[in-house]
């Protein structure tokens, strides 16, 4: 009896699962792409917070962000206030805290990466190697999404340029 | 054995067919598969319900939010009761919400929710609900799903024919069930008759903010005013109240209030009374009642005590009030979507009485009265009767409508919902309920445009419906599909407290307005801090104010010294998160109050009066991140006479 059951069960299962298909990449393709992406970023023993990844723009809404030569002081002032309200609980200027200090960040990360990290930290941690490593380095304290607009994040970035 | 194998094979093949790629699962179809009831209420993981249902929590004092058709509970909204889950009624900001002329009352009996309307259709701005015991009306925001306002109703007792709204939310109406001396005084109970009054209160609603203010109180004869509903469409401007105990008995009402063959439905032309009042009519009377308003921008409630109410004597406004004789102590008083039929459910009757609005107006025009009661004209039963539903059931209570010409009435004694046709009064269908149904709700059923797809029957008796849980059980509810000619029982689910009535609407009316966070830059709480850098501790005599910030996953500050036994310590906690669904909680060992739950961008205050010397921990009660267990702090409590200076730090540093 068990055998008969098993056969029908397997057949039924086959019918159930066979109908998938449709659009989108298969799971296998996705995994392949993921491992390719990770392989291109060389394994490094340098802690993520000290790594220089200026060529990496990260993942998220900001694809390309050229910066002007001069620093806009009005943006800096707004950015400083926003940083104080929304970020300073975890990021201190003069020390490593819950997260890294933003001091010198412009020498380590691209403007796009910084903006994407502010705007969508969850996506970054899922898909960006450096963000992922930072999360591990900082004890799994995930960066909070503070629901900043692109303009607000841009003001904060301008403030970072002065640090 | 062999038959078993064959059975199994057949069963599995059938299953395979069900799940296979065919398009056979068409929900609206008539094929054999469409009779799959489970599929109709199954909302797959990650998918959402079609409709919201707001069920009153009865003696829980709260309002519960469910999804239809799944029957899943989404939220319990604290309204009239302290609620440790969020700190409502415990936090310093929300304590004033429960203030009354009797003082702080931590509880009430919430009965009849009603969603605000514009042009007779649900508009999804607010939901109103009545506190039955210490008469109050609450307004709950449908963007924050929080109670924003509570107004006490003076001269009322057993605030039961409430809280129903007129079709542009001009008024929320609150009628008294128990008549009482007005004003209250020391007098023999036996002198009830002709001396007690029944107050029907019309509370004006400010259209911008929803703020409530008593416009006038109609002091009616000393009957019991049981339920009410507004006119709509052509009968907009009128309000209808069912009455019982027109005998004016003051004891053993079970017998003594069931003597008259007919009681009344009171028809009240409120527009006429409004005009009278606007022209200076009515009498101002001293009356103490609390008005509590919660301000979303300060996250704080204030309570104001009012001292006066405008009363109207019915005989002073001739032509505004009439009595419609209605058999057998009518309970439900419902008005159909077109505003023509007023349905009175004589709760001791087998039949349902339907009055006609047009016939009522004609009888009034012709001045065909059958005497009066305390100066209020009584119309002839036969002159106003539209028809009577020979239901075959027993104990009709409440009626809702599907917008397709059908009415649905619950029958308490015979435990069923009966579907009948408006106009022909013929019974179309009946389905049992489990057991002893009270109210029923069709989303939008109390408006011009019901969304007649589902019907929820709310029962008074549960008995064997669920796994037993000792003598006390939650009340049962059933969901019926009413999209076809015959009702179909879909699902059965337990409710919380005792639902008396409910209100429901399509999900899209509310989904996009539902607030996700409070913006920190819009936080005007006097003790809010806009940045963790502003965190501090200040002493003012024995009062200590701690301005504290939270973010995943630490408090700023988290080490505080210099607190002394006998201090009154206020924790003002601002949640600096700005992401959806990241509240932080706060609780302190030995604190004689509940925890508080602080939403992103919000500030809440928790009081602690330390009684013992030592170093005492506090922690976050809401699992906020992977490092939630690390979200804690310590407070050093020194003897009352100690010289330890106030200090507060985070990670060893001053803030």
UniProtKB/TrEMBL annotation, chain A:
Pfam families: Cytochrom_C
Cytochrome c domain residues: 74-163
Entry-linked InterPro entries: Cyt_c-like_dom, Cyt_c-like_dom_sf
PROSITE patterns named among the record's database cross-references: CYTC, PROKAR_LIPOPROTEIN
GO molecular function, one term: heme binding
Keyword terms of this UniProt record: Heme, Iron, Metal-binding
The UniProt record lists the keyword Iron: yes
Key word Transport present: no
Protein name: Cytochrome c, mono- and diheme variants
Upper lineage: Bacteria, Pseudomonadati, Bacteroidota, Cytophagia, Cytophagales
TrEMBL record, chain B:
Chief place where the protein resides: other
UniProt keywords, alphabetically: Copper, Metal-binding, Signal
Recorded superkingdom: Bacteria
GO cellular component terms listed in the entry, alphabetical order: cell envelope
Pfam families hit by this protein: nos_propeller
Any one GO molecular-function label of the UniProt entry: copper ion binding
Keyword Transferase: no
UniProt subcellular location: Cell envelope
Residues spanning the signal sequence: 1-24
Record protein name field: Nitrous oxide reductase apoprotein
Native organism: Ekhidna lutea
């Amino acid at each position: 009896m068990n055998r008969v059951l098993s056969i029908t069960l397997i057949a039924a299962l086959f019918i159930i699962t066979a109908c998938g298909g449709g659009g989108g990449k298969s799971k296998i393709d996705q995994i392949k792409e993921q491992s390719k992406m990770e392989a291109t970023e060389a394994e490094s023993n340098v802690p993520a917070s000290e790594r220089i990844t200026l060529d990496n723009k990260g993942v998220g809404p900001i694809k390309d962000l050229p910066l002007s030569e001069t620093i806009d002081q009005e943006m800096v002032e707004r950015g400083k206030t926003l940083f104080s309200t929304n970020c300073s609980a975890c990021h201190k200027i003069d020390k490593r805290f819950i997260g890294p200090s933003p001091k010198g960040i412009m020498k380590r990360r691209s403007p796009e990466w910084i903006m994407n990290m502010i705007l969508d930290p969850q996506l970054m941690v899922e898909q960006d190697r450096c963000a992922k490593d930072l999360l591990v380095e900082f004890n799994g304290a995930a960066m909070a999404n503070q629901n900043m607009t692109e303009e607000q994040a841009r003001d904060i970035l301008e403030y970072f340029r002065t640090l | 054995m062999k038959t078993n194998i064959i059975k199994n094979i057949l069963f599995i093949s059938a299953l395979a067919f069900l799940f296979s790629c065919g398009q056979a699962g068409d929900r609206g179809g008539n094929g054999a598969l469409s009779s799959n009831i489970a599929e109709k209420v199954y909302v797959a993981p990650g998918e959402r319900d079609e409709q919201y249902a707001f069920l009153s929590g009865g003696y829980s004092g709260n309002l519960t939010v469910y999804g239809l058709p799944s029957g899943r509970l989404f939220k319990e909204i604290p309204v009239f009761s302290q609620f440790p889950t969020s700190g409502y009624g415990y936090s310093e900001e929300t304590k004033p919400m429960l203030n009354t002329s009797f003082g702080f009352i931590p509880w009430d009996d919430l009965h009849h929710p009603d969603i605000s309307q514009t042009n007779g259709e649900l508009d999804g701005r607010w939901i109103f609900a009545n506190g039955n015991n210490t008469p109050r009306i609450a307004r709950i925001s449908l963007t924050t799903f929080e109670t924003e306002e509570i107004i006490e109703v003076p001269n009322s007792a057993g605030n039961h024919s409430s809280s129903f709204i007129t079709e542009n939310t001009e008024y929320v109406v609150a009628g008294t069930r128990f008549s009482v001396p007005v004003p209250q005084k020391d007098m023999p109970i036996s002198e009830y008759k002709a001396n007690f009054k029944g107050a029907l209160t019309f509370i004006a609603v400010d259209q911008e903010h929803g703020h409530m203010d008593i416009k006038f109180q109609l002091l009616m004869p000393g009957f019991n005013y049981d339920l009410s509903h507004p006119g709509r469409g052509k009968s907009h401007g009128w309000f209808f109240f069912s009455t019982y105990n027109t005998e004016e008995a003051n004891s053993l009402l079970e017998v003594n209030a069931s003597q008259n063959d007919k009681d009344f439905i009171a028809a009240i032309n409120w527009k006429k009374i409004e005009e009278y009042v606007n022209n200076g009519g009515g009498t101002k009377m001293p009356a103490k009642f609390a008005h509590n308003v919660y301000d979303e921008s300060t996250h704080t409630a204030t309570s104001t005590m009012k001292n006066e109410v405008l009363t109207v004597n019915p005989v002073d406004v001739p032509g505004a009030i009439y009595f419609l004789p209605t058999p057998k102590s009518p309970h439900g008083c419902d008005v159909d979507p077109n505003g023509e039929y007023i349905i009175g459910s004589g709760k001791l009757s087998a039949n349902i009485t339907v009055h006609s609005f047009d016939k009522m107006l004609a009888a009034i025009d012709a001045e065909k009265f059958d005497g009066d009661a305390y100066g209020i004209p009584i119309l002839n039963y036969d002159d106003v009767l539209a028809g009577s539903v020979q239901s075959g059931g027993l104990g009709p209570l409440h009626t809702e409508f599907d917008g397709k010409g059908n009415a649905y009435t619950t029958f308490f004694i015979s435990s069923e919902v009966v579907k009948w046709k408006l106009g022909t009064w013929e019974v179309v269908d009946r389905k049992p309920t489990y057991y002893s149904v009270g109210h029923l709700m069709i989303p939008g059923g109390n408006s011009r445009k019901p969304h007649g797809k589902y019907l929820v029957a709310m029962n008074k008796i549960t008995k064997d419906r669920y796994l037993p849980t000792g003598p006390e059980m939650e009340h049962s509810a059933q969901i019926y599909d009413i999209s076809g000619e015959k009702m179909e029982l879909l699902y059965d689910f337990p409710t919380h407290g005792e639902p008396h009535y409910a209100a429901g609407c399509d999900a899209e009316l509310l989904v996009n307005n539902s607030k996700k966070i409070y913006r920190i830059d819009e936080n005007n709480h006097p003790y809010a801090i806009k940045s963790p850098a502003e965190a501090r501790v200040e002493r003012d005599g024995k009062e200590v104010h701690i301005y504290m910030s939270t973010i995943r996953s630490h408090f700023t500050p988290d080490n505080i010294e210099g607190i002394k036994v006998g201090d009154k310590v206020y924790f003002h906690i601002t949640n600096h998160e700005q992401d959806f669904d990241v509240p932080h909680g706060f609780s302190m060992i030995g604190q004689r109050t509940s925890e508080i739950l602080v939403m992103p961008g919000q500030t809440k205050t928790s009081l602690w009066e330390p009684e013992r010397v030592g170093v005492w921990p506090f922690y976050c009660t809401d699992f906020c991140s992977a490092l939630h267990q690390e979200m804690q702090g310590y407070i050093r409590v020194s003897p009352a006479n100690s010289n330890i200076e106030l200090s507060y730090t985070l990670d060893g540093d001053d803030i």
